[in-house]
Design a protein that fits this description.
mainly alpha; 73% helix; single chain
């Protein structure tokens, strides 16, 4: 399995997990590994980076879609009685998207160089 195929699977799986964790009742959420904000940001960093690696020719569209998704996913919490959407949380997620997109672009640059045989 090549890296882009793996990245596609992992990115879509990550997005599905993020949506599930965001809208599930508070008791069904996994416990935090670090601070809540850092957990949120890291989830979006990894997921966004994987999307950029998976679809390198669609980086701009993916970046914009994920940035918007950070806010829309937060708004889905209105559907759950035990959850409370916060602008702060959406901003943390959006910052995670920006960092993840940047990292994904760097990885794509390195992958392109290695495919050409450049040091």
């Amino acid at each position: 399995m090549n890296i882009r195929r793996f990245a596609r699977f992992a990115a879509w799986t990550g997005l599905a997990l993020i949506v599930f964790v965001t809208i599930s009742p508070i008791g069904a959420r996994p416990s935090n590994v670090t601070t809540t904000d850092l957990d949120r940001a890291l989830a979006f960093v990894v997921m966004s980076g994987l999307f950029i690696i998976a679809y390198p020719r669609r980086a701009l569209a993916i970046s914009l879609a994920l940035f918007l998704a950070a806010f829309l996913i937060e708004l889905t919490q209105f559907a759950s009685v035990t959850r409370h959407p916060q602008m702060h949380d959406a901003v943390v997620k959006a910052l995670g998207v920006m960092v993840g997109v940047s990292g994904g672009l760097v990885v794509n640059l390195l992958l392109r160089k290695s495919e050409r045989g450049e040091p």
